[in-house]
Design brief:
The complex is a heterodimer of chains A (about 110) and B (about 500).
Chain A (H helix, E strand, L loop, with lengths): L1 H22 L8 H4 L2 H12 L3 H11 L5 H8 L3 H33 L1
Helix pairs in contact in A: 1-6, 3-6, 4-6, 5-6
Chain B lengths: L6 H15 L8 H12 L6 H11 L7 H11 L22 H10 L2 E9 L11 E9 L4 E10 L4 E9 L3 E9 L5 E9 L3 H12 L9 E8 L2 E14 L2 E11 L6 E10 L5 E11 L17 E4 L5 E2 H9 L7 E11 L4 E9 L23 E9 L7 E13 L2 E12 L11 E8 L13 E3 L3 E4 L2 H14 L13 H5 L5
Parallel strand pairs in B: 6-12, 6-13, 14-21
Antiparallel strand pairs in B: 1-2, 1-11, 2-3, 3-4, 4-5, 5-6, 7-8, 8-9, 9-10, 10-11, 14-15, 15-18, 16-17, 16-19, 17-18, 19-20
The chains are: A mainly alpha (about 110), B alpha+beta (about 500).
Chain lengths: ~110, ~500
């Protein structure tokens, strides 16, 4: 019984920690240990999958392939201004998805425990 | 302006990069892609000696006359070793012909082949640039074309080749659909493109860099295919968003017929060194191409997204790109311009607010020569780019048209834009910077913006006859309501406008 409680507390703490930091995404730099966690990578990839195709594409183009706005605009056949706007919306959407996923995982942990 | 201190952007950037670095090494693709692309296309653009024969051999069947083909080929495949011999003659007299002659000569051929490459991103510093080859064949008599362009696909880090074929009436465009499952489907869709001939000629003008001649100087002779060509150099700067892009262009002209032989362009930003951005070779033929080349029958294995019966006009499809009503209700698009003899320009443009249930109201109580309609986005001025920004074309209302389309009634504004001082002709510039203002609610976001009306879409109207044969049919194409074109909309009244 004591072991189960400790396990539950640890799980809740881990995902609750992510939820806390994802809430701070627009306010302060994330600590490196949060960025580098395997769980974070899993959530990021899941969140990206939940974006619409254009938002996913523009984020990956920008941050994975290192493309400039000019290159993205050429590839997507839209203006650079539209690229910046799309990037802005994509970041906002990604933050929402991350929060939703982190919250769902925390709830799921509660239910499992 | 990009905000490097935005915590959200910095965090998202770090999160995405770190998550992908865990199992997806960044790909190093440049050399392989270039190699694959060139092998695929069988064009070696930088050298005419190696570039031309494979194309001609591969395309034997497309020429009607093999004899003329061989003669043409023999004439063109002249020795050139690719040695760049640029001779500077201080004080040398420039040839007594101009770039206008050059493009005229090119256009007078029956068939034109343009091939070469351009890098995928003009904004980069020149390191690890991917060259995207292209190969175009034009039937200048009938306005038909066959174009194959390499497009870099950032999803897979590969180059794909896309075909566009125009039979003079319909344009068949190849596309791709990527599904989340990873499956890719090749598609074909059709556009109605009846004015392809004029557009083709205008397109060639732009491709030949002929339009970029302000500030060009004759710098001497340089040999191409054994011919001592006249070499011209020009530099210009464009401001795109917050970045200044500098370009330097060399154009080789054949002194025998003044036609363009080759163009080569370099680019740089304020933070980079010069790097070569493109190379284009021009081959003029007096032979006629086979009709088969311009067939717009969908090839096997392609999914037809939009049939010929469903084909919309090219300009309508272009507007659809800007009119994404799902997320962004505001849109505007400047379609075409018609330069009059006095320098003014008739311009067709449209603007919508997809949430507006009565879009016709904007056109009530307007006067011929009066203020522009207060459309959701108002295109109020134009300015020639890049070297005549101080010239400002101000817009006045002429008339509006409306047409029932598959997507409902569409309204088109036809305005007269009058320059405040003498403007360079369209063939001397890239196009016209568009100045617009938003009249719709500020909370409605205009997301996709057209910044320039390209010179390709600007046509010369030098007489009343041109007005009748060029402008009026274009207006009628976008109108199915009789009373909208007033009787006093005549060439004389437009060329001598009395503006309010």
């Amino acid at each position: 019984m004591a072991l189960e409680v400790r396990k539950r507390n640890r799980q809740t703490s881990a995902n609750g920690q992510l939820l806390h930091y994802f809430n701070q995404l627009g306010k302060e730099p994330l600590p490196d240990e949060i960025i580098e966690k395997n769980e974070t990578a899993v959530i990021i990839k899941n969140a990206l999958k939940r974006l619409n195709e254009n938002q996913k594409f523009v984020l990956e183009a920008k941050y994975i392939n290192g493309m400039t706005a000019g290159a993205i605009s050429e590839n997507m056949k839209i203006t650079e201004k539209a690229v910046h706007s799309l990037l802005y919306r994509a970041r906002i959407s990604l933050r929402k998805k991350l929060l939703r996923l982190a919250r769902d995982m925390e709830i799921s942990d509660h239910e499992k425990s | 302006m990009k905000n490097h201190n935005d915590p959200l952007e910095n965090n998202i950037s770090r999160l995405i990069m770190t998550s992908y670095d865990k199992d997806t090494p960044r790909k190093c693709f440049t050399e392989k892609i270039i190699s694959d692309a060139l092998n695929e296309l069988s064009v070696q653009p930088p050298n005419r000696k190696t570039a031309l024969p494979p194309n001609l051999v591969r395309r034997h069947h497309i020429f009607k006359s093999k004899i003329s083909q061989l003669i043409t080929a023999a004439a063109l495949v002249v020795v050139v070793c690719g040695v760049f011999v640029l001779v500077h003659y201080i004080g040398i007299d420039a040839p007594a012909y101009g770039f206008g002659d050059a493009i005229k000569s090119l256009s007078e051929g029956k068939t034109l082949c343009i091939c070469g490459w351009q890098i995928k991103d003009n904004e980069v510093t020149g390191e690890n640039n991917v060259k995207l080859p292209f190969e175009h064949w034009y039937d200048l008599e009938k306005g038909r074309f066959w174009r194959r362009n390499a497009v870099f696909d950032y999803r897979t880090d590969t180059i794909n080749f896309y075909l566009s074929v125009c039979d003079g009436e319909y344009m068949m465009s190849e596309g791709r659909i990527w599904y989340n499952s990873g499956e890719t489907v090749k598609t074909i869709s059709y556009l109605y493109h009846p004015d392809s001939k004029d557009s083709t000629i205008n397109w060639i003008k732009n491709k030949a860099n002929i339009t970029r001649i302000e500030g060009f100087n004759y710098i001497g002779k340089d040999e191409v295919d054994g011919v001592a060509c006249d070499l011209w150099e020009g530099e210009y700067t464009l401001q795109i968003a917050d970045t200044l892009r500098h370009s330097r262009t060399h154009t080789w002209l054949d002194p025998r017929d003044h036609s363009v032989v080759r163009t080569r362009a370099w680019g740089k930003t304020d933070n980079s060194e010069w790097f070569q951005a493109s190379e284009t070779n021009f081959y003029k033929f007096d032979s006629t191409l086979s009709d088969d080349l311009f067939s717009t029958t969908a090839p096997e294995g392609y999914q037809v997204e939009r049939t010929k019966e469903q084909a919309v006009e090219k300009h309508e499809a272009e507007f659809d790109i800007y009119n994404n009503t799902t997320h962004w209700p505001l849109a505007f698009f400047v379609h075409k311009g018609y330069i009059l003899k006095n320098g003014a320009m008739i311009v067709c443009w449209q603007s919508v607010d997809a949430t507006d249930t009565s879009p016709g109201k904007y056109y009530e109580d307007l006067e011929f020569g009066g203020d522009l309609p207060k459309l959701p986005i108002e295109v109020y001025a134009l300015s020639p780019m890049p070297n005549a920004r101080d010239v400002r074309f101000k817009g006045y209302h002429l008339l509006h048209t409306q047409k029932n389309t598959a997507k409902g009634i569409r309204y088109y504004e036809w305005s007269l834009f009058i320059p405040d001082k003498e403007a360079p002709p369209p063939e001397n510039i890239f196009g016209y910077q568009i100045y617009y203002r938003q009249n719709a609610d500020e909370d409605k976001v205009l997301d996709v913006v057209q910044s320039m009306l390209s010179s390709e879409e600007v046509f010369m109207v030098e007489s009343a006859a041109d007005f009748k044969t060029i402008v009026l049919p274009a207006i009628n194409d976008l109108n199915d309501v009789d009373h909208l074109i007033p009787e006093y909309f005549t060439y004389e009244n437009v060329i001598n406008p009395i503006v309010a």
